[in-house]
Each structure stands twice: as structure tokens, then as C-alpha cells.
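Figure caption, in words: inputs first, then the predicted bound structure.
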Amino acid sequence: MSASHHSAPVTSAPVCVTGSAGYIASHVVAQLLARGYCVRGTVRSLRKEKEKDIAHLRALPDADTHLELVEADLMKPGSFDGAVAGCEYVMHTASPYMLNAQDPQKDLVDPAVQGTRTVLESCKKAGSVRRVVLTSSMAAITDEPESDHVLTEADWNTKSTLERNAYYLSKTLAEKAGWRFIEEEKPGFDLVVINPFLVIGPSLSAAINTSPQMFLDLLVGAYPGIMNLAWGFVDVRDVARAHVLAIETQAAHGRYICANTAITMRELVELLRASGYEGYKLPNLGLDCGVGDYVVKLSSYLQPKGIGSYLRTHVGRVPRFDHSKIQRELGLSFLPLKQSILDTLADLKTWGHIAPPKA
Ligand code: NDP
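Bound structure (NDP present):
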């Protein structure tokens, strides 16, 4: 842990966190409150019927005195003016995350890209903002990992389109819009970008994020077999800490790959089998071979569009990446991967998402 992490809060003004009820953002808010910051979180709706979606934020320690929630929508120009007014630090995490959008332009790209611009424009108008931390993604670094290339912060996803990995496209264009805004507008604040890989770990609310959902799918037999897939995971608690370190480390700059180590589907299934989940419908059939890759790619055309294109671009590829910059410059250390994986499953059980195995 870096020395800066023990220092006093770097601002007495509220830190604005957009999309604060989300899976990652809730942890960011929790850690900011625990560090003594005042937080202004944005949510799409504060209406009474939506109260259950934000109850987990209101229940956080110190929320009653240090957390203020305001409404803002990525698709409404000027919507974030009030949210960022007077803030020195803004964390822009809000962006739709789904692999299977009905209308990828409207559901994914527009809110991601226009939303980023809208938030940055409000920050410029505010005049008080010193730094914006943007939650980008590994999806902005690569569309399909090449096994013979170690990905670094210098890499950009150049392949995604609306038809192919539209969520990836939305994250790539949103991050680019962020850098372009800084370059063209010279708004008087800097941008620091966190690029997490697949985020797992305990959730502060009952909602199941797209990434942990994968573990559920594994347990209920949704996968026909063990495919030649490998995932780069990172714990949500580490991602949240990276956001806090990004404001507390004055010299932070540029992009930061935020990923622990990669694990193959076979290794993951074996870990689950050895950790008390052997009674569930874990996949057995070995499709992690040349013929298997062929079968998976063919059958991917029967899957919903977003999932199909994910499979076709990831089967047979082990992501390789250099995660040293975030450790070196921000002093972030990663929780052990095995702990993150088992904590995710334990948490899914706690929330009642995993029922006991059928006899
Ligand atoms: P969540 O779905 O939990 O959070 C997304 C947040 O974005 C929600 O708070 C949602 O608000 C908000 N949002 C979506 N559309 C709008 C809109 N039109 N106006 C205002 N707010 C909106 O997902 P995550 O916590 O996983 O995602 C947070 C960020 O992290 C995103 O930028 C995502 O791309 C990025 N990321 C996530 C990874 C992962 O594996 N989970 C990996 C890499 C990056 P509401 O609660 O109202 O729906």
C-alpha cells in the first residue's frame, strides 16, 4: 500500500462519483467515506420507488453525514452541472455495461460517449475541478487479445464496431472522447484513466453485475464444456482503491491497466471443483482443444449477438498484459486471485443468487 494512502483526504470539497449506485462505484463511495471524504454521488433517479436501488449507499458507514445523492442522467445535457459544482475531484464511472444490447448505438455508445462529454463539460463549467478520474476498461485497450503481444497502456482497441463487441466500442470511443476533450478544450484539469479487466468480488447491493454473472452461469450448466477461454480478472475492492489512489497520488497520469492475473476456464473450473462447488453443474466436456475451438466458434452464431461475437474474438486467446504501471506509480497491490474468486462465489451465496446444489 502506498504511503499516500495513509495521508489525510486531499480535498475537503465533496468528491463527485457518477453512477454511484453501480457495482464498482458503490465500492468507490464506501472507500472514500472510510477515508474521511465527503462524497456527492449521482444516480439516475431519487424517486421513492427507486429508493431500494440506493439503499445500500445510504446504509454505508458515515453516509448520513458525508454522502449526498443527486440526480443526473448521461443523456441530458447540463445534467451534471449541479453534481460537480464546487468539486475538485470527479470520478466518472457511469456507463452502461451489458454484452447484449438491443440497440447498441442508443443503449451503449451514445450514453458512454455523449455522457463522458457531458460530464467533462460540466466539470469545465464548474471551474473548481482539478482532476477527473475516468473508469474506462480493458475493452478500450483490446478487442481481442493477441497471444504473442503483451498489452500495455500504449495499446488501443482498433477493431470493435457496432456489430462486433459494441460494448467494447462504447468504452473505446468514450475514453477517446475524454482525451480529446482535454486536448482540445484545455479545461484546466487533468484526466487519469483506470482500465479494469473483468471485475469480480463482493457486491454491496443485490444486483448481479455482468462479470460475476459468469460464475453463476458456470455453476448452473450454462456452458456446454470447458472452452479455450482465459479471463483477466480484478477484484472490485482493488478497482475502487485504484480510483482513490488516482486522486491521492498527485503524479498520477495517463492510463492504468487494472488487472490481476489471467486464469483459464479450465483452471477456474478446477478451483471451483476443489473449493466446495463440485456438486454444481460445472462443465466437464473438454472443448479446450483445436476441434473444440472450431465447435465453439460455429455454435457462437446461435448465441445472442453480443455474446456470440465475444466468443468468436476470445476463444483460443490468452490475454497477456503488463500491470506494472499501476503498482509502481499508484502503489496498488492486488488481492490474491483465488481469494477474489472464492469471495465472489461466497457473496453470490449470501445474496441468495446461488441455491444449494440439486441432489
Ligand atoms: P453497473 O451497471 O453496476 O454500473 C453502471 C452505472 O452506470 C450504474 O450506476 C448506472 O446507473 C450508470 N448509468 C448507465 N447509464 C446511465 C445513464 N444514461 N445516465 C446515468 N447513469 C447511467 O456496472 P459497473 O459498476 O461494472 O460499471 C461501472 C464502470 O466500470 C462502467 O464505466 C463500466 O464500463 C466500467 N467497467 C466495468 C467492468 C466490469 O467488469 N464490471 C470492467 C471494466 C470497466 P443506474 O444505477 O441508474 O442503472
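The longest helix spans residues 104-126.
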